[in-house]
């Protein structure tokens, strides 16, 4: 138990450092270069962002083996949403990488993750701060739908490029009559994305109620 708890603490610490670096870098670049920095967001922080999101796949494994008590389906949906939008949509289309929506999306992701991993990291060692607990379980409720809207907008912006370049579209030669037109796949995924949003918001509200709604905040050492 102590070993697993220490492992989770180190994992949260790594994610906190990664997302804090991204978040700080974005703010400093914007304060220094203004709007010009927005179009270059992906090229400046994209590598660390991809690394952090790939590392987050471990959270699914943590739940499966029982060392994390979070619910599997909501976490799985949140992680796969990011993986699909980041690697399939944004990373594969250079024209999309310079859009302002990418900067907005990264800002929302990292704002939420800096708070979440800070809360998780401190909770591993039994430290609970009321303001941080409130932020962790409250801020995600309005910001998560905004991030879904940004994901949907990024997908819509990418559709013309997938149509023009034929990226990921497959057409098998004769005698097969099977083909996959990837823009149609993305349009169907938009429906899944917004349907999943309703389910995840319900889960976020139930988590907030469990931790805050009944005054059930643990008062530990500071």
UniProtKB/TrEMBL annotation:
<comment type="similarity">
    <text>Belongs to the very long-chain fatty acids dehydratase HACD family.</text>
</comment>
<keyword id="KW-0276">Fatty acid metabolism</keyword>
<dbReference type="GO" id="GO:0102158">
    <property type="term" value="F:very-long-chain (3R)-3-hydroxyacyl-CoA dehydratase activity"/>
</dbReference>
<comment type="pathway">
    <text>Lipid metabolism; fatty acid biosynthesis.</text>
</comment>
<keyword id="KW-0812">Transmembrane</keyword>
<feature type="transmembrane region" description="Helical">
    <location>
        <begin position="127"/>
        <end position="144"/>
    </location>
</feature>
<keyword id="KW-0444">Lipid biosynthesis</keyword>
<keyword id="KW-0256">Endoplasmic reticulum</keyword>
<feature type="transmembrane region" description="Helical">
    <location>
        <begin position="181"/>
        <end position="201"/>
    </location>
</feature>
<keyword id="KW-1133">Transmembrane helix</keyword>
<dbReference type="InterPro" id="IPR007482">
    <property type="entry name" value="Tyr_Pase-like_PTPLA"/>
</dbReference>
<keyword id="KW-0456">Lyase</keyword>
<dbReference type="GO" id="GO:0042761">
    <property type="term" value="P:very long-chain fatty acid biosynthetic process"/>
</dbReference>
<comment type="function">
    <text>Catalyzes the third of the four reactions of the long-chain fatty acids elongation cycle. This endoplasmic reticulum-bound enzymatic process, allows the addition of two carbons to the chain of long- and very long-chain fatty acids/VLCFAs per cycle. This enzyme catalyzes the dehydration of the 3-hydroxyacyl-CoA intermediate into trans-2,3-enoyl-CoA, within each cycle of fatty acid elongation. Thereby, it participates to the production of VLCFAs of different chain lengths that are involved in multiple biological processes as precursors of membrane lipids and lipid mediators.</text>
</comment>
<keyword id="KW-0275">Fatty acid biosynthesis</keyword>
<dbReference type="GO" id="GO:0030497">
    <property type="term" value="P:fatty acid elongation"/>
</dbReference>
<feature type="transmembrane region" description="Helical">
    <location>
        <begin position="7"/>
        <end position="27"/>
    </location>
</feature>
<dbReference type="Pfam" id="PF04387">
    <property type="entry name" value="PTPLA"/>
</dbReference>
<dbReference type="GO" id="GO:0030148">
    <property type="term" value="P:sphingolipid biosynthetic process"/>
</dbReference>
<keyword id="KW-0472">Membrane</keyword>
<dbReference type="GO" id="GO:0005789">
    <property type="term" value="C:endoplasmic reticulum membrane"/>
</dbReference>
<protein>
    <recommendedName>
        <fullName>Very-long-chain (3R)-3-hydroxyacyl-CoA dehydratase</fullName>
        <ecNumber>4.2.1.134</ecNumber>
    </recommendedName>
</protein>
<feature type="transmembrane region" description="Helical">
    <location>
        <begin position="47"/>
        <end position="65"/>
    </location>
</feature>
<keyword id="KW-0443">Lipid metabolism</keyword>
């Amino acid at each position: 138990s102590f070993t697993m708890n220490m492992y989770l603490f180190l994992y949260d610490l790594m994610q906190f450092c990664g997302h804090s670096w991204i978040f700080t870098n974005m703010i400093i670049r914007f304060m220094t270069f203004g709007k010009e920095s927005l179009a270059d967001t992906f090229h400046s922080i994209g590598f660390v962002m991809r690394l952090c999101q790939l590392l987050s796949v471990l959270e699914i494994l943590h739940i499966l083996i029982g060392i994390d008590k979070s619910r599997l389906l909501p976490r799985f949906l949140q992680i796969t949403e990011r993986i699909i939008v980041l690697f399939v949509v944004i990373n594969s289309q250079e024209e999309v990488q310079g859009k302002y929506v990418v900067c907005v999306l990264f800002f929302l992701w990292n704002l939420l993750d800096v708070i979440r991993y800070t809360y998780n990291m401190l909770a591993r060692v039994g430290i609970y701060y009321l303001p941080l607990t409130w932020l962790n379980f409250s801020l995600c409720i309005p910001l998560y739908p905004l991030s879904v809207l940004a994901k949907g907008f990024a997908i819509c912006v990418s559709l013309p490029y997938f149509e023009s370049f034929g990226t990921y579209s497959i057409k098998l030669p004769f005698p097969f009559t099977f083909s996959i037109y990837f823009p149609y796949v993305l349009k169907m995924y938009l429906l899944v994305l917004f349907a999943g949003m309703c389910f995840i918001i319900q889960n976020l509200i139930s988590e907030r109620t469990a931790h805050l709604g009944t005054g059930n905040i643990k008062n530990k050492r500071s």
